[in-house]
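Mods, move this if it's the wrong board.
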Amino acid sequence: MVTETNSRRLPTCFGNVRYIFNIMEILRDILFFVCVGLFTVAAALCDVRTRRIPNRLTVPVFVLGLVYQIVFNGWSGAESSSGIAEAGLKSALLAFSMGFGTLFVLWLIGGGGGGDVKLMGALSVWLGFQSTLLVMMASTVLVLVGTLAVMGWSLISKTPWKTTAKFIATSKPTKPGMQPVRETVEERQNRRIMAYGVPVALATWAVVLWKLPPL
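Not the wrong board. Structure tokens:
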């Protein structure tokens, strides 16, 4: 039987629970923005400077992303005032399969670097399926625009032959009768027109800001 005293305590109890949930949601959003922001900046800087994205950066972020989804969003996801940090473990795993899988296939056929694969794999578990798809589409557009701009400037400032020698893969000449020597992984990395970490970072920030609710 609910007494008058207990009935007065119920609203206070529910208010405390709501307050705790609000605090958890704020912590979740802060953790998301800090981790995703720092990770994309660090990955872009590493890719620009060294043309590599190290495992010591991508692997911890990937594991932390899975833990984040389990602790804050569960399997199916949760509501969030930010509109971006509520993916859930199910969406994170689907995003990983798409992001990591797509770039892994491109890496196998020589269309990208191993660091790019790990970058998208680690980032996808934070973003979830829908946001990862948007980031991949936006980063692809940025890569195409950047590539055309760099190639166009190179053609204007240099001769077409120098541009071809710098950006187009060719086999190394050898002695007559011997098979041409194929370029190494390091040479292929150096031939990349632009670091993939930069367009991914720009695309991620654009998607995150776009999905934020209006003030």
